[in-house]
């Protein structure tokens, strides 16, 4: 069975690009026979990533499990696996995908990112979906959001 683990963390030290403390969220995927095995795999994976990828968990002392999702089957239309709302304006951040897997095991596609890998310079990310602003609830997204 596949398991998604959604985790959160805080950096103890201030990040070199800001005087503010940083925090973050990440998701891991493992295949396991049962939930306890998946949790063991998550622990091992996160520990290994901490040892092998120095900057990934730099200044992080604790990682918290926000949710563990057991995927028994996937509906054709897909499903929302994790949703998080943060107070305040989005002030930017750092994101990364697929650590601990080879290109043969998983591939990530980035939309609107610079051509250079691991660029330290910021860039504008174009939205994937744009909704029309509506006052009522349950309105359908604009045509640009549906593809």
Q: By helix and strand content, what is the structural category?
A: alpha+beta
Succession of helices and strands: EEHEH
Number of helices, where a helix is a run of at least 4 consecutive DSSP H or I residues: 2
Spatial ordering of strands, largest sheet: 2-1-3
How many domains, in number, for the residues? 1
Q: What characterizes the major β-sheet?
A: 3 strands, antiparallel
The first-to-last residue Cα distance is: 32 Å
What percentage of the residues does DSSP assign to strands (E)? 15-25%
The Cα radius of gyration reads 18 Å
Describe this structure in words.
The chain is an alpha+beta fold and 147 residues long. It has one domain (2-146). 15% of the residues lie in helices and 21% in strands. The chain has helices at residues 35-52, 143-146; strands at residues 2-11, 23-31, 60-71. Strands 2-1-3 form a three-stranded antiparallel β-sheet. The longest helix has 18 residues, at 35-52. The radius of gyration is 18 Å and the shape is globular. The two termini are 32 Å apart.
Tags for this entry?
147 residues, alpha+beta, three-stranded antiparallel beta sheet, 3 strands, 21% strand
Give a topology summary:
Layout: E1 2-11, E2 23-31, H1 35-52, E3 60-71, H2 143-146
Task: Summarize it.
This protein is α+β, with helices and mostly antiparallel strands.
